[in-house]
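Lab notebook, bench 4. Still working through the backlog of constructs that have no structural model yet. Next entry is a single chain of 268 residues. Request: give me the structure tokens for it.
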Amino acid sequence: MLTTLKWGGSFGEFGGPRILRHVANDNEAAHDHDFMELAVILSGRGIHKSHLGETRLSTGMALLIQPNYWHEYSRCCNLELVNFCFPVALVRSEWRNLLDERVRSLLRSGKGLQFAQWPAKSIHSLQVIEQTRRSSCGALGLILWALDQFAMSIPESPYAVHPAVERALCALENQSQLPWSATGLAKEVGLDRAYLSRLFKAQVGIGLIGYLNQLRLEHAASLLRHSDLNCSEVGLAVGYSDPSLFSRRFRTKFGLSPAAFRIRAKRS
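Model written out:
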């Protein structure tokens, strides 16, 4: 059975990011969560399972898991992890000016799960810093450092985001429920539509409308968990006037219909 971990139930509704360190042996049950998680393997071995299949875990591997994507650990043998957990709302608001372009692009990715291999020196630094962080630095400083390390470790070479792309991202993130089109966004940021579309996809890794749909569906998942709106009302609230289209897109992203997703979330 899949367990859903909720930010409020796990950490309380308020406060900043959380950092957990633990050792896993044998299996850890399949679960998802309504917050983001960066997991870094300090030592040991195991198997990670997700919609992408199975991946062997070893020292230095790191996983960035977006909200609402299930995963589990199996056949763990002294698998020591540090888990950095934080709400998406922090990324979209309070952290906006603290993150550089590489990390912002990483967190905005349409990929539900990303892997990276950290160099040995980064793992050593994490072990030292995490052990002493209560007296030397706060959780926020450490998690920003960890996200930066992850961004530098992924195969893609990050680069600065064009100001017009940044304005388009902010418009979509702040008002995702509006009936945006590529033409409307181009007018909003003052660029030719075709040029903005090419630039956006090249720098963000997903098209304008694809990114808009991602934001809407993430918001819909949150409303299904935490509101009393029915499924059609949730779809309308996030920008889908057609309930069938909303249901199809939600199922494609999360593997469940909106109704099934809500039932599972309420049971957990």
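Notes after review: The domain at 163-267 is CATH 1.10.10.60 (Arc Repressor Mutant, subunit A). Residues 16 and 48 are 27 Å apart (CA to CA). Flag for follow-up if needed.
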